[in-house]
Amino acid sequence: MNGTRAFRVAATSARVITGVAVAVACAVGVVAAIHAPWPEISHDPAQVQVTPLPGDTVLVCNGDLRALGRDSSAPLDMRSAASPTLTEGGTSGRPSSTTLESPDLTDAGDVRVLTGAVEGRTAPLIAATESVTIAEDDLAGFAALACGEPRLESWLVGGSVGTGTEDIVILANAGKVPTTVTLSVYGTTRSARTVVVPAGTQLALPLASIAAGNEAPIVKVNASGAPVRAVLQSSLVRVLDPAGIDLQDAVAGAQKNVVFAGVQAFPVEGDEADMTVMRLLSPEADGEARIVVRATGSREVANEFTVPLSSATPAEVSLSGLEPGTYSVEVEADVPVVAAVRQQDGAGLDSDFAWVTPAPELDADVLVAVPRGPTAQLQLTNTADEDATVSLAPAEGGDGEEIIVPAGQSVSADVEPGTSYLLRPSATVHAAVTMTAPGALAVLPIQAGAGAEQSITVYP
Fold first, then answer.
1. Of 79, 69, 82, 83, the residue nearest 106 (C-alpha)
2. Is pLDDT of 72 > 80?
3. How far apart are CA 350 and CA 138, in angstroms?
4. How many C-beta atoms lie closer than 10 Å to residue 380's C-beta?
């Protein structure tokens, strides 16, 4: 072999060896790449935290107490029986006021709509209540009701169509467009009725016209077009004696945990089974509710029991056996429920009754307008595991007080009728104003204020 050929063989061998080495290296690299973490390429979407501008706060009042049957030739016609006294307040002065029409009410007074206008980026806190006292042959007693926000959906948990009752469903549309309201009755007999409420108008209809045949009706109120304020006016006549009146606010919706503040039990002779009664409903499913009753100022359980619930069927249970006094009532259910408690202080002339609706959670500043009327107390309930401190001061200035609400307990504090207060809780509490005198009862759960708007994340 000459030198040139030997060189070619050597060169060829080198190329083969180099190629094999490169191939092996590539194979090893691929295997390593499979098991090695791959680089990630990501881009966070553009986003910004935005706090929406709050809207004006609007409260709709109820207006005159209505009377049915005063004209024997037109027993379903309604007449004004009494005009209420208004108590109002606001953190930026008194709210502005407009009125609604009441075309179905003879001699109608004003139905007020109160507005707290936004200033800059802040919505002022406003509050208002109405109260009325009457002593007539067909209506007697005391009633008070807070002016409230209209809703697209709400529940009227109370009322009766029995002998001696004249209960009225009142619907107010403070919007700029008509609204179609569907009233769905839950009870032994299901029924429904649709009512068109024109813009800027309040209308009413007897409960018996939609809930006949139901001993314990509950009415779901659905509005389409504009939200409505729904109120239930109740009155009772025993034999020939008027035995109380009430104005009941609608419940916002069903929930699994319901708290009542300021439920009262009164001394009674004879059967007390119907003196303090809870009505509740599971709209969607069968379930069970646990009821726990505690006296104000005590953590001990005064009464505890369970109630089986059948879907879409109202249930009533007596809170009997309670010593006279004030109580908190907690409902813990395994399905969402709506509920209310009816309390009364007697059985005939010079007696009164009141439906107590749930007291929602309060965890921010709220303005409380105490109606004019009998002795008033603020009831505060703390269902949490830690103590809460509530600051209470007159809205127009003056000395305030700090109220300690122990964990798992309720306390009460005197408040002045016809006065507005600023309430500031350090933790979540439930609250109501109770007003009590012989033949005069009212309980007003305190609703959360409009509060500051929560920030939201916007993705352009």
1. 79
2. no
3. 13
4. 29
Both structure tokens of 379:
């009831």
Q: What is the 3 state secondary structure string of 216-257? A: CCEEEEEEECCCEEEEEEEEEEECCEEEEEEEEECECCCEEE
* Cα gap 340→301, rounded to integer Å: 20
Classify residue 185: in a domain, yes or no. yes
Q: What is the mean pLDDT of the chain?
A: 88
| Alpha carbons 312 and 100: distance in angstroms, whole number | 34
Residue 356 lies in a domain: yes
**What total of structural domains would you count in the chain?**
1
Q: For the stretch 5-14, what's the b/e string if a residue is b when 16 or more beta carbons lie within 10 angstroms of its beta carbon?
A: eeeeeeeeee
For residues 56 and 62, give the distance between their C-alpha atoms in angstroms, rounded to a whole number.
20
Helix H or strand E segment including 43: none
Is 3 part of a structural domain of the chain? no
CA–CA separation, 352 and 252 (whole Å): 26
Give the 3-state secondary structure of residue 209: helix
Residue 3 has pLDDT above 60, yes or no: no
- Does 431 reside within a domain? yes
- pTM assigned to the model: 0.86
Distance of alpha carbon 234 from alpha carbon 442, whole angstroms = 12
Q: Which domain holds residue 390?
A: 50-456
